[in-house]
Amino acid sequence: MYSVEKIRNDFPILSRTVNGNKLVYLDNAASAQKPLCVIEAVRHCYSHEYANVHRGLHHLSNLATDNYERVRGKIRDFINAGSEDEIIYTTGTTEGINLVAYAWAMNRLEAGDEIVLTSMEHHANIVPWHFLRERMGIKLKWVDPEGDGDLDPDRIITAIGPKTRLIAVTHMSNVLGTLVDVKAIAQEAAQRGVPVLVDGSQSSVHTRIDVQELGIDFFALTGHKLYGPSASGALYVKRERLTEMRPFKGGGDMIRDVSKEVVSYAGGTQGFEAGTPAIVQMIGLGAALDYLSNIGMDNIARHEVDLRNYADQKLRDRNWLNIQGNAPNKGAIFSFTLDGPAHPHDLSTVLDGKGIAVRAGHHCAQPLMKFLGVTATCRASFGLYNTRKEVDALVEGLELCRDLFS
Ligand code: PMP
């Protein structure tokens, strides 16, 4: 039985006040709060089990290495990868996608080759491809969503041409909440021999992920949105793609041998994890994944669908709110603007006065803002600890905004 009240007790920050009001935290799409088990895992590691990993032969180094490496199996289970050898540790989705750009795409693509992407992408899934456009003459082929923010997989599939070498697509828009049918895209792409990279930064928080069932080649996720520490994350790379990648970050821990003349690299994922990693953060992510799997991703998804439906009905009842995106399959993320002179930043400031944390701005999705014909929106994004009461608080706060700015 899903008890949101019990879950809330696991998150100490949720009982604090902001500007004299009980905190209503609705900025989960930017970063989520941390449960006690994650905070405790980090504290315990620094207090009792900390040393550098993969290097020492002493007790603490072995202990830290075991704890750190154990998380690879947890990530494997969380996304149902075929093997731990397909999981590269990263500091988040941004690093994961950059890794694909530098280690895979730069090694495989040449001038005139195309990457298909959508206008709904976060800048993390745009700018690395612009680098390739600027530096290698790669062409970017853009696919727009429908007016309601839905993305018909056929739009992507028909954009595939003889020069298409990669499809880079979000699984869930961080602005509209649209869930994209990446399985349908991957099925058709595989028949045409085109790999698919999925930005799972938002989707992995809200739905159960099975990368094998999705049939995709790369999947990037972010630990800090999964209730884990910042600077934790992972990139799933299908085994056959791993052999097509060349290391791009050189340094300690990723070599087989180094001499003055030549260098050879460690095999597998190790070749992509140079330098001292985010040891404690990854251990904290392991605790977060345990926490999520104890609750059950399907239960979390059900709770969030309930919140989405409730918020959808409440917000759409207010005809002075312009809600962006109404895809049939969407998660609990709502972007909106207010009729009249109020800028989204104004809404956010007024709501903050009531202790309600939302995000306002372009959400690192400027091409989408252009498509929607706005410069910014206000965004409320829900997580596993949010309640219907908090939706009500948001609506009340927005009514105050309407009164102030009309
Ligand atoms: N993609 C999407 C869809 C996101 O929402 C975000 C974070 N807002 C990112 C990528 C980047 O994630 P990070 O900054 O954690 O690497």
What is this structure's SSE topology?
Elements: H1 4-9, E1 17-18, E2 21-22, E3 24-25, H2 36-48, H3 59-79, E4 87-90, H4 93-108, E5 114-118, H5 127-136, E6 139-143, H6 153-159, E7 164-170, H7 182-191, E8 196-199, H8 203-206, H9 211-214, E9 218-222, E10 233-237, H10 239-242, E11 255-258, E12 263-265, H11 279-295, H12 297-316, E13 321-324, E14 333-338, H13 344-353, E15 356-357, E16 359-361, H14 366-372, E17 377-381, H15 388-405
Parallel strand pairs: 3-15, 5-6, 5-7, 7-8, 8-9
Antiparallel strand pairs: 1-2, 4-10, 9-10, 11-12, 13-14, 14-17, 16-17
Helix pairs in contact: 2-11, 3-11, 4-5, 6-7, 12-15, 13-15
Bound molecules: 4'-deoxy-4'-aminopyridoxal-5'-phosphate.
Question: What's a quick, concise take on this entry?
Answer:
The protein has 406 residues and is of the alpha/beta class.
Can you offer a commentary on this structure?
- This protein has 406 residues and is of the alpha/beta class.
- The protein has two domains: 4-30 and 296-405, Alpha-Beta Complex (Aspartate Aminotransferase, domain 1), CATH 3.90.1150.10; 39-294, Aspartate Aminotransferase, domain 2.
- Helix content is 41%, strand content 17%.
- The protein has 15 helices and 17 strands.
- It has helices at 4-9, 36-48, 59-79, 93-108, 127-136, 153-159, 182-191, 203-206, 211-214, 239-242, 279-295, 297-316, 344-353, 366-372, 388-405, and strands at residues 17-18, 21-22, 24-25, 87-90, 114-118, 139-143, 164-170, 196-199, 218-222, 233-237, 255-258, 263-265, 321-324, 333-338, 356-357, 359-361, 377-381.
- The strands form five sheets. The chain has a seven-stranded mixed beta sheet with strand order 4-10-9-8-7-5-6, with helices on both faces. The chain has a four-stranded antiparallel beta sheet with strand order 13-14-17-16, with helices on one face. It has a two-stranded antiparallel sheet with strand order 1-2.
- A hairpin with an 8-residue loop joins β13 (321-324) and β14.
- α3 (59-79) packs across α11, α6 (153-159) packs parallel to α7 (182-191) and α12 (297-316) packs parallel to α15 (388-405).
- The longest helix has 21 residues, at 59-79.
- It is globular and about 70 Å long.
- It starts with a helix and ends with a helix.
- The mean pLDDT is 97.
- 4'-deoxy-4'-aminopyridoxal-5'-phosphate binds next to α4.
- 4'-deoxy-4'-aminopyridoxal-5'-phosphate binds at residues 29-30, 92-94, 122, 124-125, 170, 174, 199, 201-202, 222, 224, 364.
